Amino acid sequence: MADRAHAVEEGVLRFAPLVLVLSLGWYAWRLGDPADWGMIDLKVYWSLSPNLLGDQLYSINMPFTADFPLPFTYPPFAALAFLPISSLPWLAARVLWQVLSLVCLWWLVRTALGLLASRAGQPYDATWSRRALLWTGLALWCEPVRKTLDFGQINLVLVAGTFAAMVATRQAVAGLGVGVAAGLKLTPAISGLYFLVTRRFAAAAWSVAGFALTVALGFVASAGDSWRYWFELLGAADRVGPVGSAINQSLRGALSRTFGHDVGTSWPWLLAVAVSAVLTGFALRAAVRAGDTLAAVVAVQLFGLLLSPISWSHHWLWVIPLVLWLVHGGSRRGWPALSVAAAWVVVTGADLITFLIDQQPSIWEVPRPWPLAALGWAYPALGLLSLAVMPRLLRGGRTGAPLPPTSKAERSAL
């Protein structure tokens, strides 16, 4: 059976470059004239970031719909980082961001496969390169990627950068990379958990220093906006968007739709977080014992997505390395791994979230009929399931902490 599967893959991989070219061509045709690209989130970054220089970053919103003007929701350092793009014409900014995001998609796939090749004791050869091309072409059509590209979101750039930092060999580079990523958008801060469980305490310290530097730069650029963000706006989830909308695939979003109101940090949410924390703990322990870097990285990031008050469906890009680990990881154990991978492919490949959004009367209305509330658990339920099966899939792996690559062969794989 294994030999037959390998032979089938070999045949498919011969067409990997063609699959990527056709996928990109279809995507370009779907996009059409660049002048018609909406990319609404990029427009927020592009149009509102210059307000930082006038201490009005969080005072001016960009009109989107009558009931939901779009504010700038990231830390002041993010606005500072977007100033060069804000200086470009709107058309040039859109084209540049599309190209950069697509390159980051390939990099995300390639980094994950590089870790898998290293763990299997194989060089990153032509077979792995073709796998990267094939999976990049396929991943282009999964919902988190499509939504990120359509909205012009920062997700692909942020996830690729965070991933590269987490597996960097040098402690300072790893820590500073994660710290700067957290300064752009707070969610990458969960990556510090990876440094702690892998005993990379120097990297954890550097991440704190990197984050503190971004905060300081924000105060230099605009003390008023920085004070307002860190001491007034931080934690206001409803300012980011409607917590109960179907596009919010966090535990809080799913629970709110189930109970018919925003559960906030009440007992249902605390119980769900406790369950996810226990599952994450077992998954991380198994990953550390097996010396599986990719499994540890993915487990930490899944926990972050579940824990966050807002995890839009396009935030779930970490599903891509998860699926690659399930399919290609030497630690996989037959049908359980492939079944979970198939479930993720179906859920993210279908336009489920768009369907659920179309079914809700408004983005602010929380109650749902029970079938829609159940479907609204798609991402968090599969996230919990993935964490639950990880220890079993990692059982029997080699012993050793999931440290970043240190040998020359392993570094070349990345």
UniProtKB/TrEMBL annotation:
Signal peptide region: none
Topology of this chain in the membrane: Multi-pass membrane protein
Keyword Transport: no
Main location: membrane
Residues passing through the membrane, by range: 12-29, 179-197, 204-224, 267-286, 293-310, 338-357, 369-389
Keywords linked to the UniProt accession: Cell membrane, Membrane, Transferase, Transmembrane, Transmembrane helix
Domain of life: Bacteria
Compartments (UniProt record): Cell membrane
InterPro entries to which the protein is assigned, alphabetical: GT87 (IPR018584)
Similarity comment text for this entry: Belongs to the glycosyltransferase 87 family.
Identification of the protein by name: Glycosyltransferase 87 family protein
Organism: Saccharothrix xinjiangensis
